[in-house]
Write a structure and sequence with these properties.
- By secondary structure, the protein is an all-beta fold.
- It has one helix at about 95-100, and strands at about 10-15, 20-25, 30-35, 45, 50-55, 60-70, 75-85, 85-95, 110-120, 125-130, 135-145, 150-155, 160-165, 175, 185-190, 210, 215-225, 240-245, 250-255, 260-265, 275-280, 285-290, 295, 300, 305, 310-315, 320-325, 330-340, 340-350, 360, 370, 380-385, 390-395, 400-405, 405-410.
- Strands 18, 19, 20, 21, 22, 23, 26, 27, 28, 29 and 30 form an 11-stranded antiparallel beta sheet that branches. Strands 1, 2, 4, 6, 9 and 11 form a 6-stranded antiparallel beta sheet that branches.
- The radius of gyration is 30 Å and the shape is elongated.
Amino acid sequence: MKILMLILSIMAWTVTGNKSVSGTGDVPQGIEADYNNTYNKGQVRANDTATLTLRHLPQITVERIDVYVKSNKSSGAGVFTVTANEMVIATKSGSMMEWVGSYDNQQFHELTLFSGVQEGVSELQISLLGTDNSLYIEKYVIYYSFPPARTVILMNGSAVYDQLTQQESGAAVLLPSLPDVNEWHFVAWTTQPFYTISTKPDAWINPGPYYPSSNCTLWAVYEYLPDATTTYATNLQSGVYIYLESIQANAIAGTPDGGIMAYAGVNIHDTNQHYYIEFNATCDSATIMHENTGTYIGYKGTQLIAARSLWCVYHHEDKTAFYCVVNGKTYVLWPTIYKNDAMFAGLYSTNAVSTTTTVLLPVIQAEEPSFTCYPETGRGIENVPAEEHSVVIPLGNYEIRISNGKKTISL
């Protein structure tokens, strides 16, 4: 009898096809399982391979890995390789005869590939290379434990905003979105704080579920987005716009799906509402392209489709509408259509385009973005090269330079 140390969790992956497995037992949430057999289901002949890869594991401690195999009646051999985080932690080569004392084409036998303690595993791969016909894999069984519950300290500038602790080992904590600070808009979290920089930081963690691999501290990241003007376009030219209905302040958003589009409350900073409008020379026709995805907004009949279409353009003072004529009827692209207790953007039949309340809001692109973890200091702080470990703070006619913990003042 095999005696195990403390085993908290067991997950099993049963082979169901040459590219599929089914997980049972204590399967951690959010992981991805990928299986590939170059031959047939669990069978591996000479030079065939079968590989199980588990990704996005929550830094588990692997204690043992078993595989259940059988062979042909008088042959069957191969090489098993186990890697954790792309590092080989175990290999086992030989034949079924050497492993269990006989060949067996009737019953699956438990074969231990790894026994020990491998901590911090986020990706696990178990592969078999066949060297003699044939081995058959029924399932993989992994014995593991979760790491202790982790605590995440959230910093907002120089102040502690909150402290989050996993409710149980391996669970996610929920990173919040923070309120904006004047013209600084909260965008993400990061593992290393910084003053104003013009490039997006490498460590960029979006709000939402977060699986900490250790106790850590995260800092709020803000982007400088000055409040945009609400002046609607009166002179048309090709560029990036938000297309909205001005009374309810709802805009089209995203790309066509099922003949319609989504709508959203106007937000100049929401790039899902940004469209590149290309007008012809006389500005009486145009194409519409979703800037984020490069997807054109078009129409077929009275349905919106993801294709390049030429839209007719109505424009008077600050009113602009995109419309098409189908079977002699005029349909305007409208951000808020109510139908069957639902509201969406789509094509709306009209007898008078001139009564439109739709407008174009130009999206003014900032020449250079600004990000910071310290919005209270403003934009007057700039990073100098990281290897100097320094920042420069303008102060009137002086500069304060903080380098490796030392302060100097110069004109």
